[in-house]
UniProtKB/TrEMBL annotation:
UniProt feature coiled coil, ranges: none
Record key words, sorted: Cell membrane, Membrane, Transmembrane, Transmembrane helix
Family: Belongs to the resistance-nodulation-cell division (RND) (TC 2.A.6) family. MmpL subfamily.
Compositional bias segments (type: Low complexity): 725-735
Keyword Transmembrane part of the UniProt annotation: yes
Pfam families associated with the record: MMPL
Protein name: MMPL family transporter
Keyword Protein transport annotated: no
Membrane topology of the entry: Multi-pass membrane protein
Feature: compositional bias, Basic and acidic residues: 758-774
Region feature Disordered, mapped onto this chain: 718-774
Superkingdom of source: Bacteria
Amino acid sequence: MTEVNRPARAGGWTRLVTARPRLSLLVALLITALAVVAGSDVADRLTSGGWEDPKAESTYATKALQREFPNSQPNLLLMVDAGDTSVDDPAVAAEAKRLAERLAAEKGVTGVGSYWQTGAPTLRAEDGRQALIAARLTGDETTMNATLDRITPEFRGTHGPVEVKIGGIVAVRHEMQTIIQEDLLRAELIALPVTLVLLVMAFGSAVAALLPLVVGVVAILGTNAILRGLTELTDVSIFALNLTTAMGLGLAIDYALFIVRRFREELSAGADPRAAVATTLRTAGRTVLFSALTVAVSLAAMAVFPQAFLKSIAYAGIAVVLLAAAAALIVLPAALVLLGERVNALDLRKLFRRRRAEGAPAREEGAAWGRTAGFVMRRAPFFAIATTAGLVLLGLPFLGVKFGSADDRQLPASAESRVVQQHIRENFPGTPGGGLEILAEGRATEAQYTAYKDEIAALPDVLRVDGPVVNGEAAYFAVQPKGDVVDEAAQDLVHDIRARAADAPFKTSVTGAGAVLVDTKEAIGGGLPLALSFIAVVTLLLVFLLTGSVLVPLQAVLLNALSLTAMFGAMIWVFQDGHLSGLLGFTSSGSIETTLPVLMFCVAFGLSMDYGVFLLSRIKEEYDHSGDHTAAVRHGLQRTGGLITAAAVILAVVMIAIGTSRVTNTKMLGLGLALAVLMDAMIVRSLLVPAFMRLTGRATWWAPAPLRRFHERFGLSEGESAPRATATGSATETAADGEEGDRDKGSGADQESDRDEESGADRQSDHDKVEISG
């Protein structure tokens, strides 16, 4: 194979960053300062809703009922506790009526009703010690939260002979939002110092360790500004703040790790700082950009679903990923040009290296990962089968998944709104403010209303039907299921009621928690094929553009999906079935919120592709240089194994910090993604990828002639100036890749492994000289 010395070509962007590094940093500093100002109030503008399909029947019925019958859907509940006295005691009743009158006089409050006004049995506890005042707060979520903040101090606490606690869906969502904001601040305070310690351990140099952290902080501040801007265009979920902040920090650190590592390699090979940055941006920088695109694609898939919750995270996630990449490709290279060799200052590992020099000779960096790759490839069938079977086994609990809705049990047991809702659930007949509601539109007679009511009451899962309440040509019925309002029986009841819509003498629409859940599941099921197809097709295209291979993209997609099985299995075993609930501090509701698996899949798949691109790009770079498939896989893992593991551990720390949240969904999101990241980096990248690539051999890099020509014209690769081993990369390429020789040696190749690693290091050194020449 003929080595070709080509001058390293610096693109316009590289020239700008390396020629004017101080200007680049100054602009970045000004933009970051503006982001601090712009994103300062972002948390106050986020919502805790957005779980429903806006085009669903239940959404239409809910809005119509709010408009025509505001009393039908109370979202605020005041639980009046009479202590040891009955709620029917005259003094208690008098005080409760005064509270109801005061509440009705408050601005933004409508539809006030109470047990003492209506005598409704569903508003009185079975033991007669508590009763409810129900009301509806009007306006959007921000307005309702402001109203709740204003009136809560006036009504909570002791009033004469009674004690009042605040509940209802508005209180639950508001308390959830407040807790998430507090938990996010605590998570950042936990994650940042731990991350700094891990970075120092990974780099040795304190200066090098601080650089990824600076990039991460820039990404966090920019994330807040982006989310604030998105709130002007659409509703953004409070969960987006947790997730995108964690991803902004984690990905910025990942990308910075990759770039700083390559920069230090180039410096050690003899390049001056500007040339080292130019080569780093042309190689590692290109990989970072590709990685960001693959993560953004996975997040973009959530935009195909109708729920505002998923759409907002898709929009925010795409922006945050691109911001993290931009910070790593603009701020970091400029800082590296200015630092130069000082990037290795305050090296805390000098002492250990000095001691080792007095004794044993120093081992090549990453040699253990190279030996691991060699060991795995010599036993490729065993590792491929055993690891795949183990991951599938870990994912089996997901077959028992039960989808549900988020409710007050997401909150910690001490939260006031949860205490109220739990007491109502356990001690009140029926479910005040719950159940199903049927909106009837069209002129009808009393006899027709009565006949329809009797028909619904006769259904096997119905406990009681109240109504109708009539307002002109509209009416509504309240249906109380026999069991929980969102269990399987309640969902079947929704289907039964809707199946009778064609025979009703008026137009009917069903809403309520059970109906919302049915519609949400249908919306997720309808959008899932398109989302998965989008992720698969675009990811296959991107990886093909990077590698020029047909098999590598297929392998990457399948192995990434396989790496998520442990996350999904743990999600069910822990959070649905309730194992470890005492240790982790949550209450299992017996189901998983319907949209959460979609969110976790898209995010985890994108993060897995992030690490996959890091590894594949380095393998491809070495294969283009040497043409030796087996050595390229070994070299790729040797060069990136420690880096990927360090990046995964750091990102897992960030996610675990998020997982310390007191809100169950946030806890599951953080801990689940941490598990997925660690499994992918430590199992899939270390075992499955080298095993499968050894099994596929030289065919790994095959592509038909038309696709080869397409890649030659449009494809990208990491070492732009690196010599190619062959012109085609097909299965007919020369046997000089050493594949057959390794196969003949079999297990006897143990002694050759170290020599291969040394020769691989020599090849890399020569390659570095080619990259920076001229």
